[in-house]
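In this supplementary section we document a worked example of the pipeline. Step one takes a protein sequence of length 246 as its only input; no multiple sequence alignment statistics are reported here. Step two produces a three-dimensional model, which step three serialises into structure tokens for compact storage. The input and output of this example are shown verbatim.
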Amino acid sequence: MAGPRDPAEAAGPAPPEALAPPLDRNSPPGPMAARRADRHRAHEPHGLAGAARELVPLVLAALVLAVLIKSFLVQAFFIPSVSMEPTLAPGDRILVCRICNTFSDVNRGDVIVFADPNPGPETDRGIVGGFVHWLGEGIGVARPEHDDFIKRVAAVEGDTWEIRRGVLFVNGRRVAEPYVAPEPDPRDFGPEVVPDGMLFVLGDNRAHSGDSRFPPPTGLGYVPEDEVIGEAFVIAWPLNRIGGLS
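The serialised model returned by step three reads:
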């Protein structure tokens, strides 16, 4: 007959913790722990190099966004001359809606920005140089290949226009033009019919504007509708001139 069992035996095998040496918090980590720590450290940015890796994608995204906004939505322009006074003065910064023409036609009275209808030869920059220049234009640090112009639409395709002693008539009716500069231009022009696909544009400062009344190089002649960049809708700068255009 077996005697009573030893209490230690009855308790079963000792737990693993009892067999392991006490943990010393100051002792170096084991090989597995060290490898795990190395993996974590490998993904952590280090100083300026890490910051640069995080910054580059943000900068590229901002550049792409700026180019997309300028190409399809809204673009800023600078007014360099007096041809649109008193509506626009030299030094004004305006915003132009590029997408507006996608959903509506150009109408009489609109203030539009358009590409040079009589451009000179383009500079051959090659594929890479052309892309870099296009990107520079998109973010506003490179000058456009050709000048852009801003005028007011006076007549559209099919309209008959005439100017008598400085007064504009379209399709036989006098046009009310409260925006025209006080200094008159008493000369007579026309009558003429605006060709298909073309616009007849005038500066608000008629006495100092080379517009559709004059053929190149004195003026612009008729402007192709395809060259319209967008409709100017607001003066954004300077502060004392901020406001919508009419």
